[in-house]
Amino acid sequence: MKAVLMYRDRDIDPAHELSASEQALVQDLELDTLWAAMAAGDDFLLGMARQTVLHSLSSAEAITYRQHILADAIRQPDVVRQLYDLAVAAIVTERRAFFGLLSKSPDSVLFTGPCKCWRCLPAF
User: Fold this and answer.
1) Which domain holds residue 75?
2) Residue 120 lies in a domain
3) Looking at residue 30, what is its pLDDT?
4) Residue 100 scores a pLDDT above 70
5) 25 closest CA partner among 57, 54, 56, 55
């Protein structure tokens, strides 16, 4: 199951390219500064802010849907943080697994876990 938060029946298009007018709007409103503040150093959030801020709203129903999602998130910030941390951990693990397939060195095989300290090495 995939949660869709932008629209009731679909997700945003991650391959959406900015049009010339959107690029001009970003520059005129200095949206890069806004997005950087929203992300607070989190690259994932920065990318999502860029993807979502300029997505057009096609109907009042879409606006209402997003307001309900936001209200739920405001009521339960701890749950939202846990879900976010879980999603980021899954993405990081998937990337590590993918890059692990590309490397066949003994060193990379030993150090594919989330922690590389001596206490977390597997026992032999």
Assistant:
1) 57-115
2) no
3) 93
4) no
5) 54
User: Are 49 and 70 members of one domain?
Assistant: no
Q: Is residue 1 part of a domain?
A: no
Residue 72 binned pLDDT confidence (cut-offs 50, 70, 90): very high
- Rounded to whole angstroms, how far apart are CA atoms 35 and 109? 37
Structure tokens at 82: 């846990």
Where do we find the tokens 């150093």? 41
Say what the pTM is. 0.51
The secondary structure of residue 111, as a DSSP letter, is T
Beta carbons within 8 Å of 120's beta carbon, 6+ residues apart: 113, 114
- C-alpha–C-alpha distance, residues 46 and 20, integer Å: 21
Distance CA 75, CA 86 (A): 19
- Indicate the number of domains in the chain: 2
Q: What pLDDT was estimated at residue 122?
A: 44
Alpha-carbon distances of 67 from 22, 91, 117, 119, rounded to whole Å: 24, 27, 44, 46
> What is residue 98's DSSP assignment?
H
Conformational region of residue 115, where left means phi above 0, alpha means psi within -120 to 50, and beta covers everything else: beta
